Amino acid sequence: MQLDTLHFTPLASLSGGVLIGLAAGGFALLLGRIMGVSGIVGGLLNRGGQGDRAWRLSFIVGLLVAPLVWQLGWRLPDIQVAAGPVTLVLAGLLVGFGTRLGSGCTSGHGVCGLARGTLRSLIATMTFMLVAVVTVYIMRHVLGA
Fold first, then answer.
1. Got the DSSP string for 26-80?
2. Averaged pLDDT of the chain
3. What is the dihedral of CA 72, 75, 76, 81, to 10 degrees?
4. Running DSSP on this structure, what letter comes out for residue 25?
5. DSSP state at residue 5
6. 28 near 35, Cβ under 8 Å?
C-alpha cells in the first residue's frame, strides 16, 4: 500500500491540530469547561441547565458559521460523500449512541481527556482508533467500497 501523496497534507493537518489544541486549552482556561462537542450539545438539549445555554449555543453556531466565514477568503476543499441520506442518518444515530455509550466524543476524549491524562479517555480514544482502522480495512479490502 502506497502513501497517497496527492492528498497528503501534513502542514495543514498539523496546523488544524494546533488550532484545535489551542481552542481546547483556551476553552478550559477561560471557561473551566471541556471542549467536547457531544457534552456541549447534550447540555444545550437538556432543559435543566438554563444558565449556560448562551455559551453552548454560541459554540454550536460558531462551528456551523466558521466554514462560511473561511469560504469568504479561501476555497473550501471539495468533499464528496458517497452515501445516501438514509446511510448518513443511520451513521449519525450510531455516532450519537457511541458518544452516549462512551461518555463523550472524540474531541472530548481524544483532545481534552488525553491532555488531562485520564485513563478513561485513553481507553476510549484507543477504542475509537481501533474501530476506525478495522472499519476502513473492511470497507476497502473486504467489501471493496
1. HHHHHH-----HHHHHHHHH-TT-GGGHHHHHHHHHHHHHHHHHHHHHSPPPP--
2. 85
3. 130
4. H
5. T
6. yes
- In the block, cell 477561560 appears at 30
d(CA 50, CA 63): 21
The residue type of 109 is H
Q: Which tens digit of pLDDT belongs to each residue from 31-59?
A: 888 888 888 888 888 765 567 888 888 98
pLDDT tens for 78-116 read: 778 888 899 999 988 888 888 888 888 887 888 888 888
Q: Which amino acid is at 30?
A: L
Q: How far apart are CA 108 and CA 37, in angstroms?
A: 7
pLDDT in tens, 119-145: 999 999 999 899 889 988 998 889 876
Place of cell 473551566: 32
Query: CA-to-CA distance for 145 and 140, rounded, in angstroms?
Result: 5
- CA–CA separation, 109 and 119 (whole Å): 10
- Between the alpha carbon of residue 12 and those of residues 73, 101, 107, 110, the distances in Å are 16, 32, 18, 19
What letters, b where the CB count within 10 A reaches 16 and e where it falls short, cover 61-92?
Answer: eeeeeeeeeeeeeeeeeeeeeeeeeeeeeeee
